[in-house]
Amino acid sequence: MSEKTYSGGGWVVRVSNGVAEVVINRPPLNIITLEMRRDLAKIINELELDSNVRVVIFEGSGERAFSAGGDVTEFLNTEPSDLIDWGKSVELIEGLSKPTIALLRGYVLGAGTELALACDIRVATPDVEIGLPEIRLGMVPASGGLTKIVKALGPLRARYYLLLGRRIKAEEALQLGLIHEIVEPGKVRDRVMEIAKDLMSLSPLALKALKQAIRLIQDAPSEVGYDIERKTFALLRYSQDFREGITAFKEKRQPRFQGL
Description:
globular; 2 domains; 2-enoyl-CoA Hydratase, Chain A, domain 1
């Protein structure tokens, strides 16, 4: 296992057996500073280039919070350039070619919600409260959360949660599709690792292509989506992983994907 602590102690990154764990390390509430946002961009770029990393897990240090949001005390001391780049580090998570999982505990608010929604899969403990309360500070979400909530819930439902800055408890978030599973605290890490192991058994090439296809299709007309599906399939058809998958199926064994 290798471990690296980024500047200010805001992040801890551990890599072991193909899984990178990115920990927000400012307990108890894991508030995210502007410097941490800059460091996050460096972390994401390094993980993208690290061929040993197959799955990335994001989590918060301690039991009280994944992250209760950004450091609001910094908001009045930022430059225009800071605000322009504010959400780009979070966007990089969504752009990672490797599957991402958010392990959520306690408070998941503001920037914490935006970071969680940028991940592919979200597994939460029953005490989770997720939401974008920025309106209560006289501002709006600006790191992708506003857009994601409107697209996920539709404008009619999104208005209720955004205009009131309402916190959403775990069961309601599950019904809304904002989280995918609720797992008891003592079992949540095992469940996340189980999902990571399942993902690592799949073709890295196909997962990368599927993530890209989803991003392109999500805002496209149906006919464009159908075209993207067919072209993605056609590209994978000539990969070694595709051949290995079919061969393993015929031979009734587990495939050994190489990402080629």
